[in-house]
Amino acid sequence: MSEGEPKKINSITKSQWLTVLILCYVNLINYMDRYTVAGIGEASYSTIAPTIISDLFVKDLRAKMLALFYFAIPVGSGLGYIVGSETARMAGSWHWALRVTPVMGLIAVILICFFVKDPERGESEGQSHLAVTSWGEDIRNIIRNRSFMFSTIGFMCVSFVTGALAWWGPDFIYRGVKLQPGNENVQLNDIAFTFGVITMISGLVGVPLGQMLACKIKIKYPKADPLICGFGLLFSAPLLFAASLLPTVNTFWCFFFIFFGELSLNLNWSIVADMLLYVIIPTRRSTAEAFQILVSHAFGDAGSPYFIGALSRLSTVLMNMKRHHSAVKRIVLPTIFGQAIHQVIIPMLKNGVLYYSLQYSLFTTSFVEVIGGIFFLVTAAYIIKDKLTAEREVRGEKTYYLDKISKKKGEMIKLGTENQLTDEKQFTKSFIGQSVSQSVSQSVR
Predict the structure, then answer these.
(1) What is the pLDDT of residues 164-204, one digit of tens each?
(2) Are 60 and 173 in the same domain?
(3) Helices (DSSP H) in 179-320: which residue ranges?
(4) Is there a single domain that holds both residue 247 and residue 192?
(5) Which of 134, 275, 287, 355 could form a disulfide with 175 if both were Cys (CB 3.0 to 4.6 A apart)?
(6) How many helices (H) and strands (E) does the chain have?
(7) Total structural domains within the chain
(8) Which residues span the domain enclosing 426?
């Protein structure tokens, strides 16, 4: 895919959204068909679009453009809750909530066809001469890139959490708020609307904040990108854990912790994309994007809703029903003022059991965030080396990794070129912001 024409591919994927537009208004076979087409279009577009940005812009400007691009994910997700819930409410049918977004796809097709420039690969870096390698060689080189692999696993954890929150968040909060005295008649659409507003605002603030912090801190600390991602996840974990404890206690504080938890989570989006682009050479970026998107979606937001749901069902079966029923009764009985109304008590008890089982399963998202944060922190150990390696390869210099260097001298890595490594005792200075003098055991033939 790296050697293809991204503009044409983008247009094709947007045309698939047009197919979805038609299918949403025609009752064919089943919903699986239209969503399969939509999924193919979205996956293709998400793979190609960042590489076009990387070929148009470079360095800090590229980071800003990526932040603007990834702005759309959390903000669009929040708008989806708002527009979807309101459209379904006004139309009186949930089907109409799904018939809004394809119209936006039509607008995107027109804009891509007439306004998007298709640059040469590596043009922004001043290097458009790079030879295209085979797909197998691309994959082998990508897998060996430790910064890419560790950041991909970290980003998979980000996707896992966002997918779980997007699917189960409104329903979980709704069930908890219903257990509060006086809120028995709360509507799911109202909770979804508020959740969407919070998600959108956290994206509006979090994505550009992450990019701004990276640009500022990276001047002094070259490893800032993975560190911001890692600490963002580690900071988000306790906030979302606290939010999961509060729906039955205080709605305001629940949404308060969700906002700051999602804000910390949203620091990652543009930074992860920027890291991928500067540790992978231009001709392999589309393949790397596809690999990262496949892993992050397959094991992240595609699987997390099912995993949380299955774990919730298991929790319901294994839960000590008596203990939780008594806990729910303490909340329910004051609301009915001692009136033993079977039709009221039983549904609320069931709602309480479902709430607590879902709560236990959502606790896993905080654990996954901690794992993701650790992987991003590990990425920091390799990011400078892999960035410098990619830059040298773009300049046409063959690079060699000599990972097993004498530990007695405190040597970290050796980056040499075919022309430079000719003398056993020749030294080089490689790192950004650091000078590391190292020896080479043999000359390069």
Answers:
(1) 998 999 999 999 998 888 888 888 888 988 998 898 899 88
(2) yes
(3) 188-218, 224-245, 251-265, 269-279, 285-296, 304-318
(4) yes
(5) 355
(6) 16, 2
(7) 2
(8) 399-445
